[in-house]
Structures are given as structure tokens and as C-alpha cells.
Write the C-alpha cells for this entry.
Amino acid sequence: MRSYLSLIPISARVHRRQNRMTLLCIIFAVFMVTAIFSMAEMGARMEQSRLSEKHGDFSLLDSLVDTTMGQTLLISAGVMFLLVLIAGVLMISSSINSSVAQRTSFFGMMRCIGMSKQQIIRFVRLEALNWCKIAVPVGLVLGILASWALCAVLRFFVGEEFSNIPLFGISSIGIVSGILVGVITVLLAARIPAKRAAKVSPVVAVSGNTEPDKTSRHFVHTGFFKIETALGIHHAAAAKKNLFLMTGSFALSIVLFLSFSVLIDFVDHLMPQSAAASDIDISCSAGDNSIDSDLVRTLTNMKGVKQVYGRRSCFDVAAGMAGDMTPSGTVDLVSFDDFDLQALQKDGTLLRGSDLSKVYGDSNYVLATWDRNSPWDMGDTIFVGNDRITIAGLLKYDPFSGNGLTGGKVTLITSGETFARLTGITDYSLIMIQTTSDVTDKEVAAIRRIAEENGYHMTDRRDQRTSGTYFVFAACVYAFLGIIALVTVMNIVNSISMSVSARIKQYGAMRAVGMDGHQISKMILAEAFTYAFCGCVTGCIIGLPFSKMLYDFLITSHFPYAVWSLPIRSLVIVILFVTAAAVLAAYSPAKRIRMISVTETINEL
């Protein structure tokens, strides 16, 4: 052996199993960044191609810097780069830190034979960089393949605006970014564990005591807990750096989850998907309620038609406000058929507390559009003529205005029967049609012919569908969330398993003095839940304000009617995820300890 650095490949082979999680974390970081920047460049190339057709020569740099789409792609990719970098540093640091703790006697022995602190630090850093030889190429290949697959899906299955996206493109930006994040992540992650390894005293190798001295100098205060639970909490809290890294892994996962949840809301606002979205609209040129109601029945029986529903409208109707029978203002009345009303419930458009069931049929109840500046509320009464009607529910915004705000205008949504009773109007101002997935152009032409024969205007909206694009964006966001959750759980399981291995003699001593397997399991579970609890609290403290800030930046600034609310559902999912991760992390090491005999545990190196 010419140099102590020759031990690095030997150590990698010996500790191959322990290093799997670290390799996976590096692969994950490189893969994510490569895929993100590759997709950003492919999107810029698509935009460059579109702009070149309109404006002539247009470079890739121009499409990235001078267009809104390019700037959005760059900012999004940059934010994702930082998030992945932080996640990778925390996860890899935790893994390397556990590995160093498990090999304390090894580093002490190296100090005994003359290795200096700087050599120890160099050894740990080069050992970490050695993993990059395998992990970085694998991550790059996976990232490129993922970008190819996504581009193919966007081009052939979504189509629409993605019909010109390049296939099988190699992104130099993606490759360079992937390599940089792999190397930088490993160097940053190895910094603290390397210093910890350098602090190991040669006395450790001689004495064989691999536990820090301070662990034997403090009593464990049980408080309200049983001894095994208190010991588990103590084990987690005693190793401050490991507690910080494990808490950071949990917390960052929570912050990422809450942030990606905002992205889902952003896509919902950018490309709203309504159950009542029409493929074909039929309207009258005069804009009044002059479409014969019998046309609905005619269209319903035609081929290629899935659903037909209509709306009636009457504007500036004199009304008594706030329960006053004397007309003091005006309201707009819009009728929704039953299918249209049901879509409001399915789309989650109604505010909590709204009672849609009261609006159906001939009733005295209506829905009202709303925004945060609207003075009216559920339960308010309005007189229209001699009829007293009550607001049974509120919409979260005004779907009939350009910006979603009411502007102080009261718009009431009624059932078809209630509208006919209040106004005496039975014909429609708009008929909407949803077509079947296999509708043909010939069948659409037949609908157009009937509309034009009756003097109506038909608008074909089939090419305006965004369901495919929405699905792709949502699938990408959920895929990233799934990868983050998977790697986080695996990292925590690996870290707690290595923590148990580092304390194997302690557990042997506890078994020797009478602690049974059930108590050992409870102790390990308590340690895991300590990490989970600290991570959950920290993640929520950081994640909720960050979620609101991101919501205001992405959504409220562009959609004034949108209001951030506490993401209860996301928080419930986070708590369940944290609990499941803690239980899963404790199960395997606890089972391994129970399977080892007392003598074998004590003699474990």
C-alpha cells in the first residue's frame, strides 16, 4: 500500500452495503437537477422555434432571457436547484455522519499509526468524492432518459402547445448542472463528518470505547416516560449534530411538500379544470334569452353528445337588499341547470358551509358570487319583486368577471325552475355541450348545421382543452413529491439503522441487565419519533410562512381573488407521512436487535 489513500477503494468495497443510501442520495440529486434543467432547456428550444417562425432569427439565449416563459423556466429551475442541493446536503451529511460514528475505532487506529487530522479530513472527503464516480454518471443517464420520456409524453400524448418540443435532445446545461450538484453536494455534506472524524482521539482505538465520553456523565431524566422511552429520547438528543441533520431531513421534506402543494394550486388557477367545461357553445347573436329550450332535448339525442346544459341570464334586476322589500339596488340573475350546479360542488368552487341542496328545483334559495371584499354572506335575504330569496351558499370567486372579483356587483345563481318563476323566462341565453371522447368532425358539423339553421352561433372549443397539459404538470409535481418522500424515508431508515449499529454494545449491556426485546423496540421507536417530532415542528414553522409567501408570489399576485388558507389537508398528509416514516425507520433495526443474542450483541465490534 503506497499511501493511506489506497484504503479508500478498499473501504468502499467493505462498506458497500452501508454506502448504498449515500449513493442513492447522490444519484437522486443529480437525476433531479439534470431532469429539471434538461426540461427547462427543451422548453426554451420549443419557445425559440415558435418565436423564430414569427420573428425570424431568435437564439436560445434570447428565448431564455428575453421571454416570460424563458425567465419563468430559469427562475423555477434555479429554485429547484437550490432545494435539491439543500436536500442532498442534509441527507448525504446524515448518512456520512452515521458512517463516521460507526467507524470511530477505525479513525482512532489511523491516528495511532500517525495519520494527522488534516489527512483524516482529506480521507473522508476523497472517500465521499469516490462515490461520485458511480453516482454522478448514473444520475446523469437517468435524468436524460427521464427528460426524453417527458418530452415524448408532452409531444405525442398532450400535443397542443407542446407539439414542437424537441425529442432526444441532449442538454449541456442539464449535464453541467447535474455534475455540479453532485460534486458540490458531496463536498458540502462531507465537511462536518470529516471534522468529526478528525477529532477522534488515538485513545479511542486503544480503549475500544467508541462512545463519546459525555454519554456516561449525565443521568437520564425519565420524567413522565418509562425508562426505555426516556433513553430513546436521550439517544436522539445527545448527538446534537445527528439530531440537527435528521431534523433537517424531515423538515426539508415537509417544506418541499408544502411548496409543491402550492405549485398544484398554481396549476389549478393557471389551467382551471371544471366538470362543467364545455366543448361546444351555442349562443344567440342578440345576446338575450332567445334560444328555444326544446333545442336541449334535440341536441341530447344526437351522436357524439355526452351532456347538454344551458344557462339563462337577466341583468340589473331591481332588488331589495339586506332584507328590505323596497328596491334599493340591482342584482344579476343567472340560472344553472342541475348538471352545472353539481359541477360547482365537484370543482370545490363553493365556500365551506354552503348548502347546495337547497338551491335545486323551485326554491327560495340561491348561490352568490363572492370575494373577500363582499359585504354579503350566507343567510342574507334579498327581495326580487315579491319573492324573498336567501343566499344558501357562496362561490369562492366571481366566474363571470375577468379577474374573479365581484367589484361590488351581486350576482345570484339560481336553478332553472327558480329563475323561470322569478323572471318568467324559460328560453336560454347559452347552451353548452360536452362531447364524447370519440366524437367525429362529421358529428360536430351536424350540430353546427342545426344551430345555424335556427339562427344561432356555434363556437367549437375542443382545441382549447387543457386537461392533458394539466395532467402532465400535476403528474410531474406529484412524481417529484413521491421521489422526495421515498428518498427521505430511505435516508431516515438507513440513519437510524446505522445509529443502532453504532450503539450495539450499549444495547448488549442493556439486554444483559434484563431489558427485553419489547423495551429495546420502544427505545428505538422513541428515538425515531424524537427526530420525527422535531422535524415536523421545524418543518411547519418554516414551511407554512414559506408556503404563504410562495402562494402570494405565484397565485395572489396574478389571481386577485385567490386567498391563502391554512393547508389542513396537506398538514394531515405530512403528519401521517412523518408517523409512517418513523415507524418504518424503527422497525428494521429493532427487529435486528431482537434477533441477536445477548452474548453476540456484547461481542459485536
Notes: Residues 280-464 form one domain.
